[in-house]
Design brief:
The protein is of the alpha+beta class and 141 residues long. Helix content is 38%, strand content 28%. A four-stranded antiparallel beta sheet has the order 1-8-3-6. Strands 2-7-4-5 form a four-stranded antiparallel beta sheet, with no helix packed on it.
């Protein structure tokens, strides 16, 4: 049970899921799996189609666009959450710096959760709208 609570806490920190209730987060948690990877493992490759999202439970990873490092991610941070909504190309390459424990959920499994919990769709759309407004204000302010 402690591990499930850890997943819920990490999922709650993902901007896409920040407005979700504990019950909704629990549905998402049930749809995903734990994945352990070794240091050096490539989680995503820039340009590849996205089919799943990862939430870091333990460990760290480097995010690169082109050959330029743009971020280091750690526990509670996410990778590829937009892949849950489309199969668009990955915008960055993400490589594990350390051995990692990840929570992974696939687009198909997430779609099933959205069908099961219709209120979740509205919350996800509101979250995306907020992110678009934030980006818009950064670009045009």
């Amino acid at each position: 049970m402690a591990r499930r609570e850890t997943y819920l806490d990490h999922l709650a920190s993902v901007p896409l899921f920040s407005a979700c209730s504990r019950r909704e987060l629990g549905k998402i948690a049930k749809a995903g799996d734990e994945l352990k990877v070794k240091a050096g493992h490539v989680l995503t490759s820039q340009g590849d189609a996205g089919r799943e999202a990862y939430v870091i439970v333990d460990g760290s990873a480097t995010v690169k666009r082109g050959n330029r490092k743009v971020a280091t991610l750690g526990p509670g941070e996410s990778v590829g959450e937009l892949a849950l909504l489309d199969h668009g190309p990955r915008t960055a390459t993400v490589v594990a710096d350390t051995d990692m424990t990840l929570f992974v959920v696939g687009a198909r499994q997430f779609a099933a959760v959205l069908e099961d919990v219709p209120t979740l769709s509205r919350k996800v759309m509101a979250s995306l709208a907020g992110r678009i407004r934030e980006l818009d204000s950064k670009i045009f302010s």
